[in-house]
Amino acid sequence: MGKLGAKLVAKISKVRHGKVIDFQAFAAGKAYAAGLQATVVGKGDLAGYDPSHALYVYAQNQVSVFSEQITSMPEMKAFYKLIAKAEDEYLPSGPPMSPLTASYFTSWAFFDACVGAETIGTITMEVGAAFGMHADLLKIIGIMQQSRMGIYIVEAGEPGAVVLKEPETGSVCRAIVPAGYVGRRGEIWYARVLPPLLGTDHVVFTTPYVDEETPLQDWKAYFARTLPTQRGDAYERLMKYGPTGRYWNDYVFEAYVNHTPNAIFLAGLPDLPESRPHSRVNSQ
C-alpha cells in the first residue's frame, strides 16, 4: 500500500470505529456523498453504449466521485494543488476553449498524475479494497490505472471501429471509437486505448488526437532520440508519465491545429518546439 493510501485507510478506519462521532458532520458528509453519487452516469444513460465502454465510463465516474471526496482532505493537498494548477493552465473542456478534452484530462488526472509513486487511481483502489468496493469495479479501475496514452497508426478504418498498430510495441488491435471518428489508413493517432472487458474490441477511450502532418518516420526518429537503445518498458513510462508531469499536456496544448465534433487535429513533435504551432518558440 502506498504512503498516502495507507494514511487515508488509517484515518477513515479511526473515524468509523471511534467512540466519539460528530453526528452533524457525519450527516453533512453523507449528504455530500449522496449528492456526488447522483452525478454518476446511470444505467439508462449507458444503454446505448458499447458494453465495454459503458463499464469504463461508469468506473471513471466512480473514481471522479471518490476524487471529489478525498482531495479536500489534508493528506491529499499535494494532489489538489497539482490538479487545480493544471485545470487553471489548460482549461480542459475540449475545443474551442482548450484542446484538452474532459476524457483526456480526467484520465491523466486520475491515473497518470503522480505524487511520489501514487495516483488518485491507486489510492482509490487501496481505500476501496479496504472498505468493501466491489471486486469487479476494483478490477476495472486497475485496468484504467495501468493504461496509458500511445502513438498509433491506423491500418484500416470502418464505421465505428479502426484497426490500430502501435509501431513501438508492434501490437495490433481492432478498437471501437465512441467519439464516432472514422479513421483513414495511415493516420497517426495519439490516444488511450483500453482492452476489451466484454467481447473482443478494444476501446479508444479518448477523443482521437490525429496528427495528419507529421510522417511516421519523424515519430520513429523522435522515439529513437528520446528512448534508450535497450528499450525495456521505457516507451510505456514515456507515454504514461513523460519526462515531466506536464510534458504530454503541453504537447497537446501546443500542437493543436483544428478540430471536428469527433476528432482533434495536431501537428508537430514533443521535443521540437518549432514543430508545434502554439509553442512558446512560435508565439514570440
- Structural class by sheet pairing and helices: alpha+beta
Calculate the mean pLDDT score and round it. Answer: 89
Radius of gyration: 20 Å
Shape: globular
Distance between the termini: 47 Å
Number of domains: 2
Number of strands: 8
Beta-strand content estimate: 5-15%
Q: Numbering strands along the chain, what is their spatial order in the largest sheet?
A: 1-2-3-5-4
How is the secondary structure organized here?
Elements: H1 3-17, H2 23-37, H3 43-46, H4 51-70, H5 77-90, H6 102-111, H7 120-130, H8 135-146, E1 149-158, E2 161-165, E3 172-176, E4 188-194, E5 202-204, E6 209-211, H9 216-226, H10 234-241, H11 247-255, E7 256-260, E8 263-266, H12 280-283
Parallel strand pairs: 3-5, 6-8
Antiparallel strand pairs: 1-2, 1-4, 2-3, 4-5, 4-6, 7-8
Give a verbal description of the structure.
- The protein has 2 domains: 3-145, no CATH class; 148-283, no CATH class.
- 47% of the residues lie in helices and 15% in strands.
- It contains 12 helices and 8 strands.
- Strands 1-2-3-5-4 form a 5-stranded mixed beta barrel.
- Helix 1 (3-17) packs parallel to helix 7, helix 4 crosses helix 8 (135-146) and helix 7 (120-130) packs antiparallel against helix 8.
- The longest helix is centred in the N-terminal third of the chain and has 20 residues, at 51-70.
- Residues 19-27 have low confidence and may be disordered.
